[in-house]
Design goal:
20% strand, seven-stranded mixed sheet, single chain
Length: 203
């Protein structure tokens, strides 16, 4: 890339140099994307660090997490609230880079995604905390399906969403409330980028 750029300075423009420059830009972008995906997929969570989980059992934290960012936030919430915790698991492929593109289709079309049935007595808990990532600026499909299946069963609700955009994403919280048929008593939005930067917004 450096030599091609120098050629533009030394020699007149020509088709071959321009073609190599275009290919070089594409390679650079591809390399950056590969670095981002690798960094995102290298998330490690030590569950044993969250000692408060399940101590009271009055509240429940429910979450879906594709890469681990929402999982970390959910475990932090469950430990802080001393609540039980349950992970929503999708039947579709959601892992890895291919999962990213596959899930994007569901996010773009606002489709629900079939989830594995969990034996959860939602109605026995006084408060349910929903922890959800954002897909294509909207609610992620597995959480959408969970809310549809449990509409009318949630007595009180708290909401925490995670995303890579550094603003509140209030529209996603509104959609959760709309589908669940209940207003959230607490709403938080957590912005995170490759796990290194976090900003929180009270909605």
């Amino acid at each position: 890339m450096l030599w091609i750029t120098i050629q533009f300075i030394i020699f007149p423009f020509n088709f071959l140099s321009q073609s190599y420059f275009a290919f070089g830009i594409i390679q650079a972008l591809t390399g950056f994307m590969a670095y981002v995906f690798l960094s995102q997929e290298s998330m490690v969570i030590k569950i044993e660090d969250y000692s408060g989980i399940g101590k009271k059992g009055n509240d429940l934290v429910v979450f879906f997490s594709r890469l681990g960012y929402t999982k970390q936030v959910a475990y932090e919430e469950a430990s802080r609230l001393e609540a039980d915790i349950v992970e929503i698991k999708a039947k579709e492929r959601t892992e890895g880079t291919l999962g990213f593109w596959w899930c994007g289709r569901f996010g773009m079309h606002s489709w629900p995604m079939e989830i594995e049935n969990e034996t959860i007595d939602i109605e026995k808990y006084s408060t349910i905390t929903i922890c959800s990532p954002v897909w294509v600026f909207g609610l992620c499909a597995p959480v959408r399906e969970f809310l549809l299946e449990n509409k009318g069963k949630i007595k009180k609700m708290r909401v925490v969403i995670t995303h890579f955009q550094f603003y509140s994403m209030k529209n996603v919280v509104n959609k959760i409330e709309e589908i669940a048929g209940i207003k959230a008593e607490e709403k938080r939005s957590v912005g995170t980028r490759i796990g290194k930067v976090r900003e929180e917004y009270i909605i």
